[in-house]
Write a structure and sequence with these properties.
alpha/beta, Rossmann fold
Amino acid sequence: MFRRALRRLRDAYYRSGYHASYPFKQTFEARLRSWESADGRGDVPKDRDSWDEQYASGGWSFLEGIGELSHYSVIVGYATHLKPDASVIDVGCGHGVLHDRWARVGYRRYVGVDISEVAVNHLRAQDLPGALFVAANAEEYTPDDRFDVVVFNESITYFAHPAAGFARYVDALEPGGIVIVSCHQQSARARAILRDLEQAWPVLDHTEIRQGTNSWRCVVFEPAR
């Protein structure tokens, strides 16, 4: 009962309080993030051990199914139309579901970053041409090169500070580069984070995607515009 009440309070905060200014907001948000991490449900920051356990147990294998196909197709479609033969950084690449689809149409260079050693080791073992995979906390990782395309595929919602993380990866863009963010719309947190980004950065295009009972919003940002 208590946890359910807290989840309702959290959802109400993301619907109306996330963008508001009020006294002690930073203190409240710090406590909320602490509770979210302890609760461990949904798209909230998690530690490396939790991610490794989930990947080792096959907890994310459902992402490979047809039920997730549509939003991957939109991401790759946008990127390959706007930036063909691109250098790409996939922030929060997981075990490579997006890469598998991208490889079918080609890229010049692909870097995937993920906090899970289990997921990254799985990708490294495949020795994929033109691709490099880095085991690191994506929110803290600083790219040492520039990219035509930065992708957050269902990943930026796991950042404790999404706006700051987004801005840091913008700094890694080539001139004229784009950032693609896909967020599922079943989460009040995801909707609030994406709405915040859309208000702060120039949007080139966006698409609403529905497949079965799931829906996503995919937004293409052109920060230099």
